[in-house]
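Q: Convert this sequence to structure tokens.
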Amino acid sequence: MEFKEKEFVPFILGGDINTYSVARAFYEEYQIKSYVFGKYPTGPSYGSRITEYTPVKDIETDAGFIRTINEFSKRFKNKKIIIFGCSDGYIALASKYKGKLPSNCIVPYIDYDLMSRLQKKDIFYDLCEKNNVDYPDTIVYTKDMGMDFAMNFPYPVILKSSESITYWEHPFEGQDKVFFINNRQELEATITKIYDAGYQNPLIIQDKIPGNDEYMYVLTSYSNQEGKVEMMCLGHVLLEEHTPKGLGNHATIITEYHEGLMKQAKTLLEDMHYVGFSNFDIKYDRRDNKYKFFEINTRQGRSNFYVTGSGFNIAKYVVDDYIYGKKHEFKAAKEPHLWLVIPKGVAFKYVKSEDTKKKMRKLIKEGKVVNPVFFKGDLPIGRLYRLLRTHFSHYIKYKKYYS
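A:
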């Protein structure tokens, strides 16, 4: 693969598909190599030709992050370093220290105080109220409430942490990203188990909106340094992962356009002068024909290559904004495009709608489809072997966990 020299270099934190999707966006737009730092020597960026992957065991700690970025900034002292975090913990570190990092570092994220607030779902719902953004019926549960509280919507309900960073710092048997609760006894038992493990922040008890994966949507936006939204790309989620730890991760997406939904999100973002990538999880509620917002991720999402694949290269927006000082007029993705990270056979087996399957077949026939990890020219034998093992394991995973 051929590479070019630019006045900037990507510094990417993480180890999953998110990191490789960002690195591929940088390569496709600028033909440059990205430098990825994760905890373990694994994942789609490890062994790639378009990345230099370095495992750093303490990269998720303050000391490990600061040490690594200081060493890296000296190595590339004549270039601008664009920092991309690919999980909530990494972007929190980058935002926390962005005023204290070496002068050649660029952190394209909101300030730490706002980020900390937005990563708490209860704060996000307050902002939804202010900006007339629809969200599910919700109870914000705090530990001091005990078990003497009323439910104002019926079971089954969803139970989840208000923020993910400290939740995953306190593991326990049966720990899931989201719990589906069928009755009061089950709710109280799960709440007790979570707090007994050491988690202290609020929990979210939420109305379970009916409908399978095909009622889910993901909305990705980019807001420039002036707080103006430049890009929005809405993905209709056709299928999610169903393993306990991966529950909710997107597996198949078709890009769609919805003006009203985008307008709601744009108003919310610009009202708070938001900067950088944002990523919303949304579900269509057929009971009242409304799209309900679940949360905001203050970064590009794990499935971000659905945006790049739709013609809105995520690397270009950051580079134009921070390196070249170029602004863009607002533009929304309108053309359908298929993104998937599972075998097509799995997607066609578990996607329910026949009309949707017809759309998928049409897009595949037209070549409007991408699996971001399988990139022509970047399939050395060791990496290809690992990718294929993961890829075809989805046949077993969906058979075991999908219901």
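The longest strand covers residues 229-240.
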